[in-house]
Amino acid sequence: MSRRSRLLYSLRWRAVGWMEMGLSQADAARRLNVSRSVVQQLWDQYQSEDSVSRRHVSGRPRVTTPAEDRFLALSARRRRSTTVPQLVADHFVASGRKISATTVRRRLHNAGLYARRPVVCVPFNGRQGRARLCWAREHVSWTRQQWASVLFTDESRFTLDSDLGWLLIWREQRTRYHQSNTLERHSYRGAGIIVWAGISLGGHTDLHVFHGGTLTAVRYRDEILDPYVHPCAGEISNDFILILYLIG
């Protein structure tokens, strides 16, 4: 049977009572199923302090102060893409003491900050937003019959070799799409493909993939307008409208 090294508060006083009545430390330890050293330490504590309460154990001292913890969290929030080695260096400059990378990560986790990949998006400025709003207001009263003559088309580029795979930012949980946690990119380096598709109330076109090269006006005519858009225009109506983008 295993011997416990800790006793409940009530059992500690019971052991003291037994020994005051003349019971030996060995017998008291046997009754409580603990080692004799536990009972001996308990009796010594009672004799010197007149108490059997467990002594407070402070544990390992913290290497950073609350102010330094706030400094690390604030630095990570102000510079989301900063690295742990940079934060270690910043802390050393500010306090004159060196801390480990593990300590930095632990303090940031305690502040609710975790290293995650950022969301990458295409820039969207105020002029584009106003153009979209104006377009929506002009067509807000359109009927279903009018929308039936519209073919919406768009193309998207997918990068195969992203140069952002190594980049991490510090952010709180459930804040993935907050503006402060997104990166705007106009272009992407590395290999990629462009896909195109169209959709209307009556159906959709096939997905077209541009294999290599640059998307020029001539190529757009030969690969999109002639094989996809022209047949759709004949099927929809004489009032056919092609919308390439919602903004000009």
Structural features, described:
One of its GO terms (biological process) is DNA integration. InterPro entries: Homeodomain-like_sf, RNaseH_sf, Transposase_Tc1-like. It is found in: Nucleus. By secondary structure, the protein is an alpha/beta fold. Strands 3, 6, 7, 8 and 9 form a 5-stranded mixed sheet that branches. Strands 1-4 form a two-stranded antiparallel ribbon. 43% of the residues lie in helices and 16% in strands. The protein contains 9 helices and 9 strands. The relative contact order is 0.10. Helix 1 packs across helix 3 (36-49) and helix 2 (25-32) crosses helix 3. The protein is elongated, with a radius of gyration of 36 Å. The protein has 3 domains: 9-49; 66-111; 122-160 and 190-244, Nucleotidyltransferase, domain 5 (2-Layer Sandwich), CATH 3.30.420.10.
